[in-house]
Design a protein that fits this description.
418 residues, alpha/beta, eight-stranded parallel β-sheet, 16 strands, 38% helix, globular
């Protein structure tokens, strides 16, 4: 029996479901694919030749003809810092002239430079800045994004950031998921007293964030010279006791046991991992922790890339994300991240596309809702003006996105109305 729907897409040259049982290969490709949805949820996936028998369009519904293009789930960018004030292009110039990230930070730049600007900004100013950056994410095919606090580093300023993120979630078509990252750096007023700052995070910031319902996740920059493993454990466990899931910066510059800690606390993800030990990654795999790799950061800072092939051989689940932030990866473009993953980390095209969609959904605990195109999941997709999915990372430096659909509505680009 056919079913009524309010959204119907037909004519995809390749429909990438990211569900192997629905189509060909690891990406579940359906050639000549079609998809239908009702009230923002997918109700049917199959071939265009079968669509007219399977569904019928309700009055007022919309039909899109993909006209031979590639259709895939919207990108799930599971690690960003896109709400902040100020910019750091002067630091970029210093770095390309030879200064290291650590040297710039020691001179008062880095994260603390953004902290100063963000503390001076109002909530409305942060919302306006964040909205423009979310627009860029959407235009490049991202439909779900995680956004962290961490440029306030006082209770009031962290709450201000999270309130701005909440307002963005309410007004923008991109699905926004907030993370409390008050332990992003030790602020100047606590320099030399990291324990005192951890006390503030655990005893004041986290309870207030949880009381106001301003975050879903808790993050710590677990790194030499910032927060050690014991300090990170204390914060992550305090967050868990308040209902916040752990997903945190681990082993970016030095292997200090962040990957192992992620396994110990059953984190959703451990992110960066440029210096992680393979034994730690194996422990993550056994614990079901996603390894979120951020090749844009290695590219922008000129660092060695995470050994993705070695990680994949352990069987650990991998996600890709932009790390969109003003200092170490200033890009909203997940298509560029795909290219870097393939060329610099030796991931296959199929591995990278899966990591940028369903992998990111797992890193947010949202795999039942987004990241692939299956009945019951959100109708979040992008139409790409390329002849096949291999072109997405292959033809780089351009935006392939023609149309973006969120919850069954066209929210950016050409409507392709038939």
């Amino acid at each position: 029996m056919s079913q009524g729907v309010d959204f119907l897409l037909v004519g995809a040259g390749e429909l990438l479901t990211i569900e192997p049982d629905l189509g060909e290969g690891p990406l579940g490709v359906i050639r000549g694919g079609a998809l239908a949805a009702l009230d923002g949820r997918i109700t049917w996936v199959g071939r265009t030749a079968e669509a007219r028998r399977a569904v019928w369009l309700l009055r007022g519904g919309r039909e899109l003809d993909a006209r031979g293009r590639v259709v895939m789930p919207g990108f799930v960018d599971s690690h960003t810092h896109l709400v902040f004030a100020g910019s750091r292009e002067a630091e970029f110039a210093r770095r390309v002239a030879g200064a290291t990230y650590q040297e710039i930070a020691a001179a008062g730049g880095g994260i603390l430079a953004t902290v100063r600007a963000t503390r001076d900004a109002t909530t409305d100013e942060l919302v306006a800045l964040g909205r423009r950056r979310l627009d860029l994410c959407l235009q490049h095919g991202t439909t779900t994004v995680e956004v962290k606090s961490g440029y306030g580093l006082t209770t009031a300023d962290e709450l201000k950031m999270l309130e701005a993120i909440q307002l963005l979630a309410e007004m923008h078509p991109v699905g926004v998921h907030p993370t409390f990252c008050g332990a992003h750096e030790v602020p100047p007023e606590f320099r030399g007293n990291t324990t005192g700052y951890v006390d503030l995070v655990v005893e004041e910031m986290l309870p207030e964030v949880a009381r106001r319902g301003l975050a879903r996740y808790v993050d710590v920059f677990c790194e030499a010279g910032v927060f050690g493993v014991d300090e990170a454990r204390r914060i992550l466990e305090a967050g868990r006791a308040l209902g916040l899931r752990a997903k945190f910066h681990a082993d970016e510059f030095v292997a200090i046991g962040g990957a192992e800690l992620a396994a110990e606390v059953s984190a959703l993800s451990a992110d960066h991992l440029l210096a992680a030990r393979l034994d730690g990654v194996r422990a993550m795999k056994a614990a079901g922790v996603t390894a979120t790799l951020l090749p844009g950061t290695a590219f922008f800072l000129g660092l060695p890339y995470a050994p993705a092939r070695a990680f994949l051989e352990t069987g650990v689940r991998v996600a890709l994300a932009t790390d969109f932030n003003p200092g170490s990866s200033f890009t909203p473009n997940m298509q560029l991240i795909l290219t870097l993953a393939c060329t610099q980390m030796r991931m296959t095209v199929d591995e990278a596309l899966r990591a940028a969609t369903l992998g990111g959904a797992h890193a947010l605990g949202l795999e039942a809702q987004v990241g692939s195109l299956r009945s019951g999941k959100a109708c979040d997709l992008t139409v790409l003006d390329v002849p096949n999915h291999g072109y997405v990372p292959y033809l780089y430096g351009v935006n392939h996105v023609q149309t973006v659909v969120k919850s069954g509505r066209v929210v950016w680009g050409q409507t392709l109305q038939s």
